């Protein structure tokens, strides 16, 4: 399994693409939660403070935004995700259609063939 993340400016310029492989087998919903958690953790560790976070997993976004608790397996991830979201006080979490999230989806597929995290940054970005 793997996940992909892309960071854009408000004008749509790509700042960073990240692919990260994950070992193990899990349900698609839990993988989406792991991917969101990993993306948030990466942003926090690298001092990226996004204004907006989008996911193409409507079930996960609704679960987090509506404070649902009926899925015991998902609850652990949601607690950790909400904890990380607290580091980004102005961030909004929303759903995006999978077709509009093509770059992250392709990056996740790319991660399947990687053994470690791969990062491609816009050359003009300084970290």
Automatic annotation (TrEMBL):
Gene3D superfamilies registered for this protein in UniProt: Ribonuclease H-like superfamily/Ribonuclease H (3.30.420.10)
SUPFAM superfamilies: Ribonuclease H-like (SSF53098)
Organism expressing this protein natively: Cannabis sativa (Hemp)
Protein known as: RNase H type-1 domain-containing protein
Annotated InterPro entries: RNase_H-like_dom_plant, RNase_H-like_EbsB-rel, RNaseH-like_sf, RNaseH_domain, RNaseH_sf
GO molecular function: nucleic acid binding; RNA-DNA hybrid ribonuclease activity
Domain of life: Eukaryota
Chain segments annotated as coiled-coil in the UniProt record: none
Pfam families: RVT_3 (PF13456)
Residue stretches making up the RNase H type-1 domain: 2-111
């Amino acid at each position: 399994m793997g996940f992909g993340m892309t960071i854009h400016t408000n004008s749509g310029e790509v700042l960073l693409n990240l692919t990260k492989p994950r070992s193990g087998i899990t349900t698609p919903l839990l993988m989406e939660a792991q991917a969101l958690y990993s993306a948030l953790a990466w942003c926090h560790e690298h001092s990226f403070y996004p204004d907006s976070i989008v996911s193409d997993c409507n079930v996960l976004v609704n679960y987090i935004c509506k404070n649902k608790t009926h899925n015991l397996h998902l609850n652990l991830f949601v607690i950790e995700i909400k904890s990380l979201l607290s580091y980004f006080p102005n961030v909004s979490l929303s759903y995006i259609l999978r077709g509009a999230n093509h770059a992250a989806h392709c990056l996740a597929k790319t991660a399947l063939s990687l053994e470690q995290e791969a990062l491609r940054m816009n050359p003009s970005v300084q970290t």
